[in-house]
Queue: 2 jobs
Job 1
Amino acid sequence: MEAQNASDDQRSDHWARLDAFLRTDPRDAGCDEAMEMLDVYAELLAAGNDPSERFSGVHAHFLACGPCAQDLEGLLSALTGPDPSQPDPP
Ligand SMILES: [Zn+2]
């Protein structure tokens, strides 16, 4: 009986850890750091650079966090203007 309980505990712990892993990228820098780097990150993107390696923690966060990704998108479109691949309607 004791062994049965132990293995049940282990299994639920396993799932909890898997769940946490799926939700949180270990490199994820978090909202605070992402917001701090938002300007720099957007400027690098707007200049045609790829900041995802230099700021891998922030990059991971923008992939994981919808609100921060939206902030980045908004700032980026403010920096770069309208997307040239989507011309304004006549
Ligand atoms: Zn965030």
Job 2
Amino acid sequence: MALEPPPEGSFTSFEAAEISLHDWSESHGYAVVLKRSKKPKWKTDESGPYKYFYACDKSGESRSQASGKRQSNTRKTDCPFKLTITRKSGVWYLEVRHGEHNHEPSLNPAQYPALRKLIEAQEESIKSLTRSHVALKHILLNLLQQDPNTHIISQDLYNFRAKLKQQELRGITRIEALVNMMMEKGN
Ligand SMILES: [Zn+2]
């Protein structure tokens, strides 16, 4: 698997750009983390930063090579991969600043802090819907309808993703495939 950079493009919201970014990187064997953001110095009606800087989660100094410690899968490699999401005239642009990595793909999404953060955020809305006695099936549908590119939210959805690929090949939509899976699980 090549560690391909995400396609550059424009998005109607920062959230859409970020979700697309994480979705791409996760399915291409790496994770990106937000490093910093810049707020406009000029007068604007739009709140918040206008520019976000992302790097590979293996960016930064590699740990002391003299320590003699066993190198783990999550060690930093000073990876140069980086990109930005920038607002220009109300549109968000994803731009790759350095498209190459200096390490092999990682295949275990659970080890990615960036991914866990997204999962946790979605778990909150699932929990609140669960407290309102909304069935799991409807919760997931709800998430998908809000954002068809919604991120994986649990082990169920990791499994779902694999299954979806098979079903998409047979022309079934993402939502239909999800319902089928939930039905099979007896939810
Ligand atoms: Zn990297």
